[in-house]
């Protein structure tokens, strides 16, 4: 079973330095690699980019405490991938159903921009996680970087699977990769991603999983 990085993972010097700075500034925040949320026996794995500084890095749960989580978890609940009331806290009692949420990079990067070397360095954790999910049917990549990280973890040629919002790529007989623009505040504020667009992606996944 994949354990993910330890609290003081030292693979990425820049991220370690940033983490230690945040620990000094905000001693009551999580300020460590953020573990995935949800069960290993889920059929859906959602992969984002990295923890947000004042979101998951603060709360210790992926997409919890920032705008992206508001849209993500509200939509998952609407399509029965979650239950309870999402209250932007790791202890809010909100639970995922048949779904697991992770990130391509587990530590918060400065300006929310991980470097290529950091994405590569963290990729083995994603590969181990996917391998451990024996019932996995669909991986949803939120954004092009997450899409690429999933393909790297599965040792697939990126040129064969182009990222496109709403796309579905059959990686094997039993596993598909779905794509969506990231549900960030920037994308929704600029109209790159609307609530309707995001709901359509989750609806298609729900319909496909139940077939």
Description:
It is a single chain. The protein is an alpha/beta fold. 36% of the residues lie in helices and 14% in strands. It has a 6-stranded mixed β-sheet. A two-stranded antiparallel ribbon has the order 3-4. It is globular and about 50 Å long. The chain starts with 12 loop residues before the first helix and ends with a helix.
What distinguishing features does this structure have?
single chain; 211 residues; alpha/beta; Uracil-DNA Glycosylase, subunit E; 6-stranded mixed beta sheet; two-stranded antiparallel sheet; globular
Order of adjacent strands in the largest pleated sheet: 1-5-2-6-8-7
Strand content: 5-15%
Instruction: Bin the helical content.
Output: 25-40%
Tell me about the largest β-sheet.
Answer: 6 strands, mixed
What CATH architecture do you see?
3-Layer(aba) Sandwich
> What is the H level of CATH, i.e. the homologous superfamily?
Uracil-DNA glycosylase-like domain
Number of domains: 1
Point out poorly predicted stretches: none
Average pLDDT metric:
96
SSE ordering: HEEHHEEEHEHEEHH
What would CATH call the class? Alpha Beta
Structural class, by secondary structure, is alpha/beta
The CATH topology label is Uracil-DNA Glycosylase, subunit E
Strand tally is 8
Ends distance: 28 Å
The best one-word shape is globular
Oligomeric state of shown chains: single chain
Number of helices: 7
């Amino acid at each position: 079973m994949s354990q993910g990085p330890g609290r003081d993972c030292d693979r990425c010097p820049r991220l370690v330095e940033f983490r230690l700075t945040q620990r000094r500034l905000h001693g009551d925040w999580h300020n460590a690699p953020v573990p995935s949320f949800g069960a290993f026996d889920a059929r859906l794995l959602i992969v984002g980019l990295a923890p947000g500084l004042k979101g998951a890095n603060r709360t210790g749960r992926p997409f919890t405490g920032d705008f992206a989580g508001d849209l993500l978890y509200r939509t998952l609940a609407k399509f029965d991938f979650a239950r309870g009331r999402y209250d932007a806290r790791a202890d809010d009692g909100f639970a995922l159903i048949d779904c697991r949420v992770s990130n391509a990079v587990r530590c918060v990067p400065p300006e929310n921009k991980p470097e290529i070397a950091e994405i590569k360095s963290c990729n083995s954790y994603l590969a181990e996680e996917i391998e451990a999910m024996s019932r996995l049917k669909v991986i949803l990549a939120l954004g092009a970087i997450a899409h690429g990280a999933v393909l790297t973890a599965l040792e697939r040629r990126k040129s064969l699977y182009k990222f496109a919002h709403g796309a579905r790529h059959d990686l094997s007989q039993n596993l598909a990769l779905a794509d969506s623009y990231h549900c960030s505040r920037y994308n929704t504020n600029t109209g790159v991603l609307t609530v309707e667009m995001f709901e359509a992606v989750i609806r298609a996944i729900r319909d496909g999983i139940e077939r």
